[in-house]
Automatic annotation (TrEMBL):
Keywords noted in UniProt: NAD, Oxidoreductase
Keyword Oxidoreductase listed: yes
Taxonomic lineage: Bacteria, Pseudomonadati, Pseudomonadota, Alphaproteobacteria, Acetobacterales
InterPro entries referenced in this protein's UniProt entry, alphabetically: Ald_DH/histidinol_DH (IPR016161), Ald_DH_C (IPR016163), Ald_DH_CS_CYS (IPR016160), Ald_DH_N (IPR016162), Aldehyde_DH_dom (IPR015590), MeMal-semiAld_DH (IPR010061)
Protein name: methylmalonate-semialdehyde dehydrogenase (CoA acylating)
Protein EC: 1.2.1.27
Domain Aldehyde dehydrogenase: 15-479
One Pfam family, short name: Aldedh
Length: 499
C-alpha cells in the first residue's frame, strides 16, 4: 500500500476528501513513495474558515510572545535537522547537505522574524499641529496564503510563513504537490513550538485549491513563488479579487567573467552555481559570459575538466555533487532543450543526456551538459531550462556583456567576476537585474535584506523577507488625535491643514 499524506488544518492532520491524489516520487529510484491529496474548493474553504477564527486571538497576543514561539521553533527545527534534511532529500532529490542548506536559509528568515516587536513599531509625530499628535501602526491583514514551488520545500514556505505569522496573521500554505512532506512536518513543529492551532495550515492541492485561495474574499494576501507563466496568472487573478499579491517567477541568471578574473575561482563558482541541485534553483547560473576570446579559452580550460569530474549520485550519497531531477517529466523536458540547442546550432561540448547511474537505472538522473557558441536569438538562451545545463555566450567586450542580462526578459540574479572594483561598481549600478553578485555566484540576499527579481522574474512591488515582508504582511493605520481643552470653534467645512 502506498503511504497516503494529509492536509494539516487547525493543528491536526486531515485526510483528503476530494478523492483526487498526486503521486510523490522517490526521484532516486523513480518509484512512487506516497500520494498526496489534492484539496477541493470546499476543503480549502474549511481551512480558511478555521484560520479566520484562530487569527483573532493570535493577533491579540503581544509581539514578544509571538517572537518566543519563533525562538522555540528555531530550536525544534535545529533538533530535527538531520531527519528533516533526509526527508526533504528523499522527495526532492537534492543532496542531504544541500537539503540542510534549504532548511537553514528558511530558518534565517525565522531568526529575522524574532525581531518582530521592533519591526512592528510604528511612527509618531508629536505636535503635528497645535495639540495634535499623529501616529501610525502596523496591523496584521488576517488570513494570508502562500503558494510555493518544489525546488525549496523548506526555505520558501518559511520565507513567507515566518514574517506573516510574526506579524499576527494566520497562514495557509499550498506547497508543491511534488514534495509536500517537509511542509507538513514544519506544521507539526510549529504546533510543538507553541503556535496556536489554525495559525499555520497546509492545504495540499493543484489548480483547484490555488483558485479557491485566489478568489476567496477572506484571504487578504497571496505570496507566490514558481514559474513565470503561473506567477503572472496568480498575480492578475488575485489582484482582480482585491488582494495584495507578490509573485516571484523564473530566471536566466548570467555570470560575466572579465579578463582579469581569477579563473580558478570563477570556474569553481560557475560549476557549483550551474550544477548544484541539478540546476533546479531559481538563482542557478545558467549562462556564462566570458568577455573576450582569451577569457573564453582560459575559462573553458578550467571549466571542462571540473564538469567532467562532477559526481552525480543518489541524494543520500555524501560524496554526490548533485542528485536526480524532480520527475521524469522534468528530466525529459531538459533533454528536449538539449536536443533543441543542437538543432539551433549551439556546440554541445559536454552531453549529459544519456547519463545512467548503475543500480538506479529508473531514477531521474542526468549528467552535466555544456553548450558553447550560444547566441541570444536561440530558445535555449531565451527560456529557462531548469536543469544541469550551462550555456556559454561569448561577449566581445564589457558593454556587450552588460547588455545581455539587462536585455533578457528575466531579471532575477546576475554575477560578475573581476578584480577591478571600478568595473564591478559600474556593473552593479547599471545592470537591469534585481540581485547582483560581485565575485559571488549565487547572490541570495541575507534574511534582513530583501529578495526579489526584476522584469518577468517578479510581479508586484514588495520583495520577500527583510523589511519589505513586514510591509507586505501588515497594513498601516494612521491616527490623527487631538485632546483640546475644549473644542470652541463650530463645524469646519474646509479640509484640515497644518498651516
Ligand atoms: P510551478 O509554477 O509549476 O508551481 C509553483 C506552484 O504553483 C506549485 O505550488 C503548483 O502546485 C502551483 N501551480 C502549478 N500550476 C498551476 C496552475 N495552472 N494554476 C495554479 N497553480 C498552479 O513551479 P515549480 O516547477 O514548482 O518550480 C520551479 C519554478 O519556480 C522555476 O521557474 C523557478 O525559477 C521558479 N522559482 C523562482 C524563485 C524566485 O524566487 N524567483 C524561487 C524558486 C523557484
Amino acid at each position: 500500500m502506498t503511504k497516503e499524506l494529509s492536509h494539516y488544518v487547525g493543528g491536526k492532520h486531515i485526510a483528503g476528501q476530494s478523492g483526487r491524489f498526486a503521486d510523490v516520487f522517490d526521484p532516486n529510484t523513480g518509484s512512487v513513495q506516497s500520494r498526496v491529496p489534492l484539496a477541493s474548493k470546499a476543503e480549502v474553504e474549511a481551512a480558511i474558515a478555521n484560520a479566520e477564527v484562530a487569527q483573532v486571538e493570535w493577533a491579540a497576543q503581544n509581539p514578544q510572545r509571538r517572537a518566543r514561539v519563533m525562538m522555540e521553533f528555531l530550536r525544534l527545527v535545529q533538533r530535527d535537522m538531520e531527519p528533516l534534511a533526509r526527508l526533504l532529500s528523499s522527495e526532492h532529490g537534492k543532496t542531504v547537505a544541500d537539503s540542510k542548506g534549504d532548511i537553514q536559509r528558511g530558518l534565517e528568515v525565522v531568526e529575522f522574524a524574532v525581531g518582530i516587536p521592533h519591526l512592528l513599531k510604528g511612527e509618531y509625530s508629536d505636535q503635528a499641529g497645535r495639540g495634535i499628535d499623529v501616529y501610525s501602526m502596523r496591523q496584521p491583514l488576517g488570513v494570508v496564503a502562500g503558494i510555493t514551488p518544489f525546488n525549496f520545500p523548506a526555505m520558501i514556505p518559511l520565507w513567507k510563513a515566518a514574517p506573516a505569522i510574526a506579524c499576527g496573521n494566520a497562514f495557509i500554505l499550498k506547497p508543491s504537490e511534488r514534495d509536500p512532506s517537509v511542509p507538513l512536518r514544519l506544521a507539526e513543529l510549529f504546533l510543538e513550538a507553541g503556535l496556536p492551532a489554525g495559525i499555520f495550515n497546509v492545504v495540499n492541492g493543484d489548480k483547484e485549491a490555488v483558485d479557491a485561495l485566489l478568489t476567496d474574499p477572506r484571504v487578504m494576501a497571496i505570496g507566490f513563488v514558481g514559474s513565470s507563466t503561473i506567477a503572472e496568472y496568480i498575480y492578475s487573478t488575485a489582484a482582480a479579487h482585491g488582494k495584495r499579491v507578490q509573485c516571484f517567477g523564473g530566471a536566466k541568471n548570467h555570470m560575466v567573467v572579465m579578463p582579469d578574473a581569477d579563473m580558478d575561482q570563477a570556474a569553481d563558482a560557475l560549476t557549483g552555481a550551474a550544477y548544484g541541485s541539478a540546476g533546479e534553483r531559481c538563482m542557478a547560473i545558467s549562462v556564462a559570459v566570458p568577455v573576450g576570446k582569451g577569457t573564453t579559452e582560459a575559462l573553458l580550460d578550467k571549466l571542462i575538466p571540473r564538469i567532467r569530474q562532477l559526481k552525480v549520485g543518489p541524494s543520500n550519497d555524501p560524496d554526490a555533487d548533485f542528485g536526480p531531477l524532480i520527475t521524469s517529466a522534468a528530466a525529459g523536458r531538459v533533454r528536449d532543450y538539449i536536443d533543441l540547442g543542437v538543432k539551433e546550432g549551439a556546440s554541445l561540448v559536454l552531453d549529459g543526456r544519456d547519463f545512467k547511474l548503475q543500480g538506479y537505472e529508473s531514477g531521474f538522473f542526468m549528467g552535466g551538459s555544456l553548450f558553447d557558441h550560444v547566441t541570444p536569438n536561440m530558445r535555449i538562451y531565451k527560456e529557462e531550462i531548469f536543469g544541469p545545463v550551462l550555456s556559454i555566450v561569448r561577449a566581445p567586450n564589457y558593454e556587450a556583456a552588460l547588455h545581455l542580462p539587462s536585455a533578457h526578459e528575466y531579471g532575477n540574479g546576475v554575477a560578475i567576476f573581476t578584480r577591478d572594483g571600478d568595473a564591478a561598481r559600474d556593473f552593479a549600478q547599471r545592470v537591469k537585474v534585481g540581485m547582483v553578485g560581485v565575485n559571488v555566484p549565487i547572490p541570495v540576499p541575507i534574511a534582513y535584506h530583501t529578495f526579489g527579481g526584476w522584469k518577468r522574474s517578479g510581479f508586484g512591488d514588495l520583495n520577500q523577507h527583510g523589511p519589505d515582508s513586514i510591509r507586505f504582511y501588515t497594513r498601516t493605520k494612521t491616527v490623527t488625535s487631538r485632546w483640546p481643552s475644549g473644542i470652541k470653534e463650530g463645524a469646519s467645512f474646509v479640509i484640515p491643514t497644518m498651516s
